[in-house]
Amino acid sequence: MASKLLRAVVLGPPGSGKGTVCERIARSFGLQHLSSGQFLRESLGGGGAGLGLQLRSCLMDEFASILAASPPLIPVPLCPGTFPGFPRTLGQAKALDGICELDLVISLNIPFETLKDRLSARWVHPASGRVYNMDFNPPHTQGIDDLTGEPLVQREDDRPEAVAARLRKYKDAAKPVIELYKSRGILHSFSGTETNKIWPYVYTLLSSKIPPVLSEEEH
């Protein structure tokens, strides 16, 4: 594990590659990858519909206890439009201030057309949250999850007709969040159309903050 405590969030619109970037950060720097979406799926595993309302009130407490732990952490927001997203609004960003002080914020800026294509080609395994892209990361068997053999689904908000509205909603909600972190001098923005091309710059930034446990090529 890395010797220095680092707390960071990765921001970006739906389909921008936040999950991929965070997984690489976790492997390369010995940090823990915390996904609000994974917490939600695990908590809902044995519950009914009413549990979602309870989670809305207790999720911040769950993050508080985990973020106070000793290992280095990376809290990771889920895509806007999928409960809860963190932090996807100014209110959530200010609530996070009450839990911990962030060291840095990484913002992924991806062109609209690229996002539209990625989202429209995205299919998921509902139980695990595994994501496939039919263009560059397809399942071994079309429509089937590689690990469980269960069917994949396309979320309603990943369908072409819903994508434009999702991206507009994200842009409106994210603007004040990004401005907040920019004003604090902890925002680092990276632009591009491919995660593989953005990653080296993210790696270089983090290497200036904490020592990597893997080289850039080993990620």
TrEMBL record:
Protein name: KAD4 kinase
Species classification: Eukaryota, Metazoa, Chordata, Craniata, Vertebrata
Keyword presence, Nucleotide-binding: yes
Protein family: Belongs to the adenylate kinase family.
SUPFAM superfamilies with a match to the protein in the record: P-loop containing nucleoside triphosphate hydrolases (SSF52540)
One Pfam family per UniProt: ADK
InterPro entries assigned to the protein according to its UniProt record, in alphabetical order: Adenylat/UMP-CMP_kin, Adenylate_kinase_lid-dom, P-loop_NTPase
Gene Ontology MF, one: AMP kinase activity
Statement: the UniProt record of this protein carries the keyword Nucleotide-binding: yes
Domain of life according to the entry: Eukaryota
Domain called Adenylate kinase active site lid: residue spans: 122-157
Keywords, ordered alphabetically: Kinase, Nucleotide-binding, Transferase
Source species of the chain: Dasyornis broadbenti
Alphabetized PANTHER family for the sequence: NUCLEOTIDE KINASE (PTHR23359)
